[in-house]
Amino acid sequence: MKLLLIKIFSTIVFLTSSSAFACSIAARVSIVGNEFPAIQTVGSGAKECKGAKVSANLTADHQKINVAGMSSEPAEYTSAIVANTSIVALLNDDLIRPLDSLVKKHGKGLKKNQLITIDGKIMAVAFMANAQHLVYRKDILKKLNIDVPKTYEEMLAAAKKIRDSGLVKNPVGGAYKAGWNLAQEFNNMFIGYGGSHFKGNTAEPNVNSESGVKALNMMKALSGYMNPDFLTHDSNATNAEFRAGNVAIMNMWGSRAATLVDADGVSDEVKNGMDIAGPMTVGGGKTPASTLFWDGWTVAKKISDKEAEATFIAMTNAIRPSIMDNNDIRKQAVWLIDGYKPTEAARGVFAAAKMNTTPYPMLPYAGLMHSAIGKEISDFMQGKETAKKTLSDIEDAYKASAKEKGFL
Amino acid sequence: MKHKTFFWFIFPTFLAMFFFITLPIISVSLQSLHTPHENLLITVENCDPFGCKKATTIDHDATKKLKENNPLGQYVGLDIYFDRGHLAIQQVKNLWSKTNNIFEFLKLTADLPFYKALFFTLTFTFTVTPIMLVFGLLIALGVNSFNQKLKGLIIFFSLLPMIVTPLIGSIILFWMIDSRGIVGNFLQILFEDPNLSLKASTFLTWIMLIVYGVWHAIPFSFIVFYAGLQTLPKDQIESAKIDGANSFQQTIHIIIPHIMPLITFVTLMQLMDNFRVFEPIVGFNAEAHATSLSWIIFNDLGGETRQLSAAATSSILTILGIIILLLPVLIKTWKEFEFKK
Fold this sequence. Notes:
The structure holds two protein chains of two kinds. Chain A has two domains: 19-129 and 292-353, Periplasmic binding protein-like II (D-Maltodextrin-Binding Protein, domain 2), CATH 3.40.190; 131-290 and 362-404, 3-Layer(aba) Sandwich (D-Maltodextrin-Binding Protein, domain 2). Chain A has 17 helices and eleven strands. Chain A has helices at 2-22, 37-47, 62-71, 87-92, 100-106, 138-143, 152-165, 180-192, 210-223, 235-243, 254-257, 268-273, 305-318, 327-331, 347-354, 366-381, 387-404, and strands at residues 29-33, 54-58, 79-83, 115-118, 121-137, 172-173, 249-253, 274-277, 291-297, 334-335, 358-359. In chain A, strands 1, 2, 3, 4, 5, 6, 7, 8, 9, 10 and 11 form an eleven-stranded mixed sheet that branches. Chain B has three domains: 38-75, no CATH class; 76-111, no CATH class; 113-340, MetI-like fold. In chain B, α13 packs antiparallel against α16 (308-340). Chain B has helices at residues 3-32, 60-69, 79-82, 89-98, 102-109, 113-144, 148-163, 166-176, 182-190, 202-229, 234-242, 247-258, 260-275, 279-283, 293-301, 308-340; strands at 34-35, 41-48, 51-58, 74-75. Chain B is mainly α. Classes of the chains: A alpha/beta, B mainly alpha. Chains A and B meet through α3, α4, β4, α16 and α17 of A and β2 and β3 of B. β4 of chain A pairs antiparallel with β2 (41-48) of chain B.
C-alpha cells in the first residue's frame, strides 16, 4: 500500500513538472514586452526553460526601447512581445526574422491562425486577442430600467438617465487621455462611422471626412457625461474610477476587464454589479466602433541562428497548450492557444470578433497617423476649434511627419 | 596666471566639453538636415488571427540599397526647419494673407505645434523667473533675521522642494489637486463651485504649472541669496542706520546692489532651466493644455513613430532659443567686464 502511494505521488510530481523538463535551450533568451497579467505569464513560461539564461524586461515603456534594443549587432533582445500596432516599428526597420523553418521544426503545438504572415512569411506568433468593449454596472441599469446599450446613441441616452437620477454624477468612463489613448478612441469611433484612415492602398490621409466630423461630435457628446478631468485619464485612471463606483458605463480593454474588480478595497456593490458586453456600434453602422488587436512574440533578426532557435523553443514553451489547464491563467486573456475554453470574462472580445470588428491596420505609417490624431484632437475636445479645423490639422500634421519619414 | 599654466589648467575641461557638448551638437545639427530615405512600398497579403487581407509594407531589399549607398539619409537642407511641425513658414504666410487683424493671426499661429509650445515655454519662463527671484530674496531676508538656533531647521525645510525629483513632485501635486484630492476639494469648497477642476481648464492648468515651477525653483534662489547675505558690508549698514535709513531703504540701496552679481547669476541659470520646462507637463498629464519645446522633442523620440530628424530640429531650435534669451544678460556681463578692465 505504502509503495503504491509513493508510486502515485511520484507520478503526479513527474507529470506536473514534466513540462519544465521538456524545455531545454542551448543559448541565451532575452525578452522585451508590455506589462499586464497575460504577458507576465508568457514571460515566466519562457523562464522555465533550462540550459541557458532567460531574462525578461516587461515594462509599459517597451515601445520606447524595443527598436533600439534590437538594432544593435548582436541584438540585446532576442524576442519582442508586440501587438499589431507595435510590430510595425520592428517591421519598418527590418529587425525581426521570418520564422517558417523554426515553425516547421519546433512549432507542433501552434495553430494556423496563430501565425502572423506578412507577404507569405511568418513574422510573429500570436497568443491572445484583445478589443475594447462595453463594461457596465448591471445593478444601476436595472434599477433605472435601462437596457444594456448596443449603440453609442443608447449609451448617451442611458448616461442622461443615470445622471438625472442622481445615482452617479459622471456616469460615462473612457480612456480619453490626450495622446495615444484619445487617438485610439477616435479610431474606434471613426471606423464605426464607416471611415477609413488612408486613401486606398496609399499613404495619403483620409480622415477629413463626414465620418470624421461625426466621430468627433459623438466623442464630445460622450465627454459631457465624463469626469471633467477626462483628458488626463488613461485606462488605469478610468478603471480606478470604475472601482470607486464613480463610473457606470464605459468602453474598456478586454485584457483589463477580467481582473478589473479584483483589486483591494473594491466595494461589493461594484464587484457584484460589474458586467461586460460586446462593443457598441454607432450611427446605424454594422461594424462595431472598436478595433481588434492580437498580442504575439517575434524573434530578432540580428542574433545568431542558435539564439533564434533557443528563443523560439522558450517562447513556444511559454504558450504551450497545457497552460490552459490552469484556471487563473485561462482567465487572464482571450487566448488563441489550442485547448482554450473561453471564460465569462472573454465574452466581450468574443462578441467583438463575431461582429466582424475591424483589426487595427498593420501599415508602416499607421503609427504616424495615430500620433498626429493624438496631438491635434484635444483642442476640439476642449471646444477651442471646429471639427473641420481639427481634422485638417490632423492631416497636415500627419503629412509633415510622413514626409519626414519618407512615406509621402 | 601665465598663458601656459592657464592652458594646462583649462585643457581637461576643454577636452570634456568638446566630446560631451560640441560633438553631440554637431551630430544633432547634421541629423536635422537629413531625413530617412524614401520608403519603397509594396502591396502584399498579410494574415493574422482575424483573416487575410492586402496591405502595404516596406520593400526592404530595395530600401536597403538606398540606405547602404547613403547611410546619413537624404540631404533636405532646411526643409524640416520650415515644415508644419517646426517654423511652419508656408502655414504662417497663408495665415498672414488670410486673416484680417493681428489678433486673429496670432491666435491661429499659436495653434501650430511649434508656436503653441514656444508660447507656453516663454510664458512659463517670464513668469516663473521674476516671481522666483522676488520670493527667493524675501525668504532669504526673512531667514537671515531669524534666531541663530532656528536657522538650520528653517533652511532645511526651505530646501525640500528642490530635493524632491521634479517628476515625482509633480505627480504628488497632480493627485493633490485632483477634484477629489485635498487641494482640489478645498478649492471647490472655498469657491463654492462643486464642478471646479484645475485639470480641465487651460488657464488654470497654466497657473498650476507656473505655481509648481515657482515652488520648485525658489530654494535655489533662496540659498544663493542667503549665502550672499552673509557677506554684507556691516559698516555700510551701520552708517546707513545712523543716517536714519529704514530697513526698506537699506535693502534697496545697500543689500540689492551688493548681491547684484548673484541676482544676474540666478537669473541666467533660471532662464535656462525654465526654458527647458518638461517634467511638470508629464507629471501633471498636462499635454492637452500645455506643451513645451522639450516636450515636443520627447514626444517625437518616444513611441512607435521615432521622428529622429524632427527631434533633432527641435533641439537645435531650442538651443537657438536659449542663446537669444541669454544674449541680453551675456552682453551686460561682458560690458561690465570690459568696464572693469
